[in-house]
Amino acid sequence: MAANDFIPIPKMTVTMDYDPYETLCQDCRLVELCLPYGLPKTELEQFETIVKNKAPLLTDQYLYQQDEKCQSLFVVKTGSFRSFIYSEDGAEQTIGFYLPGELMGFDAFQHGRFTSSSIALETSKVCELPLSQLNKLCRLIPSLQSQMLRVLGKEIESDHNQILLLGHRSAKEKMATFLLRLSHRYNALGFSKTEFNLTMKRQDIANFLGITNETVSRLLAELNHQGIITINRRNVKINNMDSLKVIVE
Amino acid sequence: MAANDFIPIPKMTVTMDYDPYETLCQDCRLVELCLPYGLPKTELEQFETIVKNKAPLLTDQYLYQQDEKCQSLFVVKTGSFRSFIYSEDGAEQTIGFYLPGELMGFDAFQHGRFTSSSIALETSKVCELPLSQLNKLCRLIPSLQSQMLRVLGKEIESDHNQILLLGHRSAKEKMATFLLRLSHRYNALGFSKTEFNLTMKRQDIANFLGITNETVSRLLAELNHQGIITINRRNVKINNMDSLKVIVE
DNA sequence: GTTAACAATTGATTCATATCAATAAACGAT
DNA sequence: ATCGTTTATTGATATGAATCAATTGTTAAC
Question: Hey, what's the torsion of the CAs at B172, B178, B180, B186, to 10 degrees?
């Protein structure tokens, strides 16, 4: 049976060597994906001085909560996060999942308070960027300023893609897109693009895609049955990337 | 019959007195909603110098197109716009509608090219903000810089709300939310919040909400039948705001 | 190790909304 | 005014995904 073929993979796929006293962006393997990307050495050193270390967060611990005052932005260093908003009727909608190198907290720019909550999906570490200092630095370093806008533009573009996905795709297309996007992001981080562990529950995926967890289960089972993926609990192997691409068109 | 009860309303609901030589933000009635909101007089005068006039756009004229190089941001001055992205299969997804005072073009920040297209829904006028000059000015005027981030944050928050709407709402809830949001925005512009003309087609609304135009028609007819709204072609009267709010919960 | 709580799977049924199809109304052009 | 085109309405039917419900597998706690 397929389930026995798995080479065990440690559960925290996206955890890197971690030194608690490490704050140097220069040595961070994520620097190419992160906010200070492309800064000359001198400016990078300036940037490093404002980055604050934060104690690692455990699974289900909040990084920040909706309506809380926003003092800092956060970059995922290791692990992963889920962000979500509460709607008026108390139900929650998952807005996004965050992997290393990705920034969180932009939604607070309008009123200075987070409009979403963010919760760790596994033991995770973030770099904290205090806004007051970040703003000052942006004024001093024009290229940091443009980099900031670039990252904001990326966030907006990715939100637009999510709108497209939710508005115009069948459950199957949503599921395939989800897997392909994850694959792509893991790959950008230097991990395998064909095998990774999902750090979120089926329910989280379902909520994110605007479908039910039963549908997620069924679709994953179907893809598994067709041999396009091999899935065992949270472990995913993509056997046929092209078939997934055909599904999303 | 209800159709006879309508007081004719000029078709362009959101058109203001327009002087082709007018570029002064100081005298613009939208200044409170626009990017330079809150700037002291001297800074506002600086800002005015970079605002470019652009010839009015006619219905169905593109303001910009997807993949085109982005040189400027745009603010709607009069009229309205629809922005949309093409998906890989060629179908389009409407991302948003833009009314006076609202900024367009942020999605281009990541790579310098528009990731969406924007098209005029009626004869419309925009203010053009050349990016090169805007960036320089942001460095000179810190409060413009924060205002810029605030507006970006607003865009992100509104995208998140759209994700919530598309992911977790029934067609009826989507329709009611759409009407309430329009009402709210028209009201902020100083127009009636109970009576306005839709500047977009049923098909555009449907596409925006991730439903079909037939469903839009049926839902509007149902709301009309229940007396919650009175609708005749593009003209909407909201008779019972609370009922709409109950529908969206 | 055993049990309780949680997470995921799988099946049966229902329902909301899409799809297909046919008019009808409005608008622009001649 | 009239005709053709576009836009909107309305009805009949089909269907994808939700809901309801029952198990099974996994993890954490004692």
Answer: -160
Q: Which helix (H) or strand (E) holds B127?
A: strand B125-130
Does B152 sit within 8 Å of A152, measured CB to CB?
Answer: yes
Strand D: residues with CB below 7 A: A 170-172, 210-212, 214-215, 233; B 201-203, 213-214, 216-218, 220-221, 231, 233-234
What CATH code is carried by the domain that includes residue B62? 2.60.120.10
User: From CA A154, how far away is CA B110, in angstroms rounded?
Assistant: 5
Q: Give the 3-state secondary structure of residue B86.
A: strand
Separation of A206 CA and D20 C1' (Å):
18
For chain A, the domain total comes to: 2
The position carrying tokens 């005749």 is: B232
Domain span including residue A210? 169-248
- Domain boundary (B105, B130, B154) is at B154
C-alpha–C-alpha distance, residues A113 and A124, integer Å: 23
Within chain A, how many helices (H) and strands (E) appear? 7, 11
- Among the partner residues B109, B145, B146, nearest to A153 by beta-carbon distance: B109
What are the pLDDT tens digits along chain A (249 aa)?
333 333 334 344 444 444 455 668 988 889 888 999 989 999 999 999 999 988 899 999 999 999 999 999 999 999 999 999 988 777 889 999 999 999 999 999 999 999 999 999 999 999 999 999 999 999 899 899 989 999 999 999 999 999 999 999 999 999 999 999 999 999 999 999 999 999 999 999 999 999 999 999 999 999 999 999 999 989 999 999 999 999 998
Question: Distance (Å) from CA B31 to C1' C3?
Answer: 66
Residue nearest to nucleotide D17 (CA to C1'): A215
**In this structure, is residue B161 part of a structural domain?**
no
Mark the nucleotides of strand D covered by protein, meaning any atom under 7 Å from a CB: 7-12, 16-21, 26-27
What Å value separates CA A235 and C1' D28?
20
Confirm if A138 and A148 have CB atoms less than 8 A apart.
yes
Q: CB-hemisphere CA count at 13 Å for A44?
A: 16
Query: Could you tell me if B175 and B223 are in contact, meaning their C-beta atoms sit under 8 angstroms apart?
Result: yes
Structural contact between residues A213 and A249, judged by C-beta atoms closer than 8 angstroms = no
